[in-house]
Fold these 3 entries.
Entry 1:
Amino acid sequence: MPPRRKLNEFERGRAVERFQDGVPKREVARRLHVSISVIVRLIQRFTATGRFRKDADLGDQRRQLHVKIVSLND
């Protein structure tokens, strides 16, 4: 089994764009060398939130902000 591969932000944007252009999810997955489930979850997230960024990306920003605030309070 090949190792898991994560899509970077550019690839996620490209996948959503291709899907919106009418390319089937399975073909998008094949072109990006990921499983169909990765694309299905990405499209579901985009449809529900209008974003293709993962929540973890936003969590990293919140953690950085928290560290800055804590540092200023010390």
Entry 2:
Amino acid sequence: MSSELRYTANTQLEHLHARYTGTGHADLTKYDWLTHQHRDTLSSIVGHPTLTAYLAIADGACTGRVKYEMTEKMLQPCGPPPRKDDD
């Protein structure tokens, strides 16, 4: 019985990972996860004109400037990646 539950849980998890790429995996670091979250948020803001207009009004800038700044932030939203220790 428990092996069937484990198999079902694993197949459901694999299906979830295949369908939604941002769900991560076991080897995903905190930095990578945060980077994905920030990029998803920024792309959502750029993709929805009402959110872009809202931020433009709040910042006192034009919507083109807000889109440009959000797109530039997508390159490294959390700063440079941390150094990896090769021990």
Entry 3:
Amino acid sequence: MPSRNVSLRLQGLQKKDSGSYSCSVNVQHKGHDSKTVELNVLVPPATPACRLLGVPRAGANVTLSCQSPRSDPAAQYQWERLSPLPQVFFPPVLGEGISGNPEAVAGEGV
């Protein structure tokens, strides 16, 4: 082989391409050496789908739901009321293996 640099080019990466890749070098009469590289393919979140559940009437309860069908690492969500008074709502942290939509509860004085 004419070059001392042999590269592996991966095109169109997918999550399933994540893993360990090892490069082995054999030099005749000099021995063998290898190095391993860890590849972790990140998946950006898809455009979130958001909706309102319930009837927005005084005294009623409503749920604002927002989710992304895919992302790695998992997407983090935050709701923010923009007006008349700005307010940020932080959802609870979901542990590994727990599914569902984070929920933020708000009311007067929250």
